[in-house]
Write a sequence for this structure.
């Protein structure tokens, strides 16, 4: 039978933005890439507190899963770092293993990609995350939308603008 524990997957923004007093009760997971991103002493200390209390597990995600996440982000017109992709890939791996999880981050692109995979996200400090989004390039003159490869409107010749198009993810239970 699969493990049905509640766990958290943490991006580096969790350690950078949250206070030590706001300790999570669930077991937490993060990737070695996230640990490498922690540069300031405050976030390193918070990480060490979690590590010393056995509240966090450092685990790598498979490269093929990281690649799949990067491709999904690109197809959505979003740019995420390999570190961000490793966090989403780890969350996908844990979900496949049967864990119930929440992914903590303040990176809107990361959360949009994660929600597109059906993962539950929770902002660390930002309250206005409205859900998964796709970047859309559009012409401010004629109103047509174009794929990410276009910089100028082929009809009007005007420089395209970028906006976010929010969509609701389908519930996968």
């Amino acid at each position: 039978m699969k493990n049905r524990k509640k766990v958290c997957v943490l991006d580096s923004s969790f350690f950078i933005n949250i206070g030590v007093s706001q300790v999570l009760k669930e077991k937490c997971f993060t990737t070695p890439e996230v640990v490498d991103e922690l540069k300031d002493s405050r976030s390193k200390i918070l990480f060490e507190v979690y590590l010393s209390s056995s509240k966090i597990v450092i685990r790598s995600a498979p490269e093929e899963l990281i690649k799949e996440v990067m491709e999904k982000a690109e197809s959505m017109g979003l740019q995420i770092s390999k570190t961000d992709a490793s966090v989403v890939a780890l969350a996908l791996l844990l979900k496949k293993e049967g864990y119930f999880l929440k992914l903590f981050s303040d990176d809107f692109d990361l959360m949009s990609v994660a929600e597109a995979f059906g993962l539950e996200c929770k902002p660390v400090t930002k309250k206005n995350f409205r859900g998964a989004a796709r970047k859309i390039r559009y012409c401010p003159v004629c109103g047509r939308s174009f794929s990410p490869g276009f910089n100028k409107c082929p009809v009007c010749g005007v420089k395209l603008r970028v906006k976010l198009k929010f969509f609701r993810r389908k519930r996968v239970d």
User: Anything to note?
Assistant: Helices lie at 12-17, 32-37, 41-52, 63-75, 82-96, 108-116. The beta strands are 6-10, 27-30, 56-58, 100-105, 121-123, 133-138, 145-146, 161-166. The chain has two domains: 6-123, 133-166. Residues 133-166 form one domain.
